[in-house]
Write a structure and sequence with these properties.
Elements: E1 5-16, E2 19-30, E3 34-38, H1 45-52, E4 60-65, E5 68-69, H2 75-85, E6 86-90, H3 101-106, H4 116-129, H5 145-157, E7 163-167, H6 175-192, E8 195-200, E9 211-216, E10 219-220
Helix pairs in contact: 4-5, 5-6
């Protein structure tokens, strides 16, 4: 289901000293679209993902998400914007080792004024959707790689984001577990209309996407 453009990057560049990582990249993503950003290591795809999601600032160019230009936002404005609009899934899970599964999922809600039992209810509901209701009180050290990534996906969804950003979400998983994670992402896309931008170097994973964007040496090839 397409309800117009949700995310736009225009003429994005990124330099670290003399190194130019992005060279004038432009792209847009529609509401409910699943887009794969593919390319070899060092092609600039993770940098582009970080800039589009508001984790990093471009050297030049503009990013609009939900019609709002975030390029000139302050750090506090960006933090609030990310919390209200985007969800992140990382290759390395990025779970807090001292928190239980449900506490990790609920973490993005703690800055928001909300009763503790409501936070726990929302986290528990998402973990049950990920078939992890029976693991909600376990620490990350007691979870398998696939379970950790499902906790990370639940955490990404807790704020009801407009766009889900996934950076090599199956990179640390065996192929069977990776397939199960891709099934979850496909379900979020097809059944719930989630807009997803996924970075991968594995071309086999791109068959799920509505669109494939190839990157090479800081530029979009196709």
């Amino acid at each position: 289901m397409n309800n117009g453009t949700i995310l736009t990057g225009t003429d994005l560049t990124k330099r670290y000293g003399d190194l130019e990582v992005l060279k004038g990249v432009s792209l847009s993503i529609d509401t409910g679209e699943f887009v794969c950003l593919a390319g070899k290591s060092g092609s600039g795809k993770t940098t582009l993902l970080s800039i589009l999601s508001g984790l990093e600032r471009p050297t030049s160019g503009h990013v609009k998400l939900g019609g709002k230009d975030i390029t000139g936002a302050t750090e506090d404005e960006l933090a609030l914007f990310r919390r209200e609009n985007v969800g992140f899934i990382f290759q390395s899970f990025n779970l807090i080792p001292t928190l239980s599964a449900w506490e990790n999922v609920a973490l993005p809600l703690f800055p928001i004024k909300m009763k503790g039992d409501e936070r726990k209810r929302r986290a528990t509901d998402l973990l049950e959707r990920m078939e992890l209701g029976h693991r909600m009180d376990h620490l990350p050290s007691a979870l398998s790689g696939g379970e950790k990534q499902r906790v990370a996906i639940a955490r990404a969804l807790i704020g009801r984001p407009k766009v889900l950003f996934a950076d090599e979400p199956t990179g640390n998983l065996d192929s069977a577990t990776g397939d199960a994670i891709m099934e979850i992402l496909n379900r979020l896309h097809t059944q719930e209309g989630a807009a997803i931008l996924m970075v991968t170097h594995d071309m086999a994973l791109t068959k799920s996407a509505d669109r494939l964007i190839r990157m090479h040496d800081g530029e979009v090839l196709s």
